Amino acid sequence: MDFQDKVVVVTGGASGIGAAMVRKFSGLGARVCVADLNMDAAQGLADQVGGMAMRCDVTSESDIVALCDGVTATMGPIDLFVSNAGLGRGQPGHAASASNETWMLNWNVHVMAHVYAARALLPQMIERGSGYFVNVASAAGLLNQIGDAAYSATKHAAVSFAESLAISHGNDGIGVSVLCPQYVATPLIDLADDDAAGHPSLMTADDVAQATVDGINNKQFRILSHPVVGEYVKVRANDPDAWLEGMRRLKIKAERELGQAGIKDFYKLV
Questions:
Q1: Domains in the chain, please, with CATH?
Q2: Among 56, 128, 219, 260, which residue's beta carbon has the most beta carbons within 10 A?
Q3: Does pLDDT of 257 surpass 90?
Q4: Phi, psi of 103 (to 5 degrees)
Q5: Environment class of residue 121 by beta-carbon count within 10 Å: exposed (0-12), middle (13-18) or buried (19+)?
């Protein structure tokens, strides 16, 4: 994709992977809207890159419609929509222990936000025969995240919805990629770029942004910023029982070596 003068929207764009994407797309000549709940941070970044900022709660369909309408009215038709907003709450106990509120928040942020964006933009994209969606999922959407069943289940659903978009609308001139990073040094897991030094399994947000651009340019559906994830996926598909046993051993190792350190430290074990 030639990003020059393309209109790009990034949700969750004020920090982490989203902010890195905003800077990357802008550096390639795109006109970018930073959409985020944190309007101060979004406006600050938009000012840096010469873009625009809009407050958006991605769990609200009306907010996403207003975002798409506002960007279109100000910048023109949206060429690329990046559904990047995400969260990770973990679980307090067993796999079903997270509250209904936490499960529904994961569902609304990781799945319905993608649906709302597609619902708002597909009619005009189909009509003009062009457009692109990047739906940010996770390696957990292809594998699993120990200690957060709600996150894993909804990221799997995000991958499935991206597949549906690609199957249904690939012949309409619409591109779809699903980004499935593994461990990234971002505020989501309380890490910064400096933490990635010396840890091959931990990437910076800039690394992931570059992988995203490369994936779009190569028209890749599945963008794996961590290539090793593709090998894990093959193991899982070829022998699910062996993969599950390996994950159970990893869980035991995490409990022994990390204690209550939490999900953010799993990168030290892989």
A1: 7-227 (3.40.50.720)
A2: 56
A3: no
A4: -60, -45
A5: buried
Q: Is 191 left (phi over 0), alpha (psi -120 to 50) or beta?
A: beta
* pLDDT tens digits for range 203-236: 899 999 999 999 999 999 999 999 999 999 999 9
The confidence band for 256, taking pLDDT boundaries of 50, 70 and 90, is confident
Give the catalytic positions in this structure. Answer: 151
Q: CA–CA distance from 171 to each of 67, 81, 125 (Å)? A: 26, 18, 12
Which residue's entry shows tokens 């873009």? 51
**CB 10 within 8 Å of CB 21:** yes
- Tell me the C-alpha to C-alpha distance, in Å, between residue 11 and each of 105, 169, 237: 16, 22, 32
Among the listed residues 217, 243, 205, the one whose alpha carbon sits nearest the alpha carbon of residue 14: 205
* 132 strand-pairing partners: 80, 175
Please calculate the CA angle 188-97-152 and round it to the nearest 5 degrees: 45
Mean pLDDT of 62-89: 97
pTM for the model stands at 0.94
- Give the pLDDT confidence score for residue 220 in this predicted structure: 97
Backbone angles phi, psi at 194, to 5 degrees: -60, -30
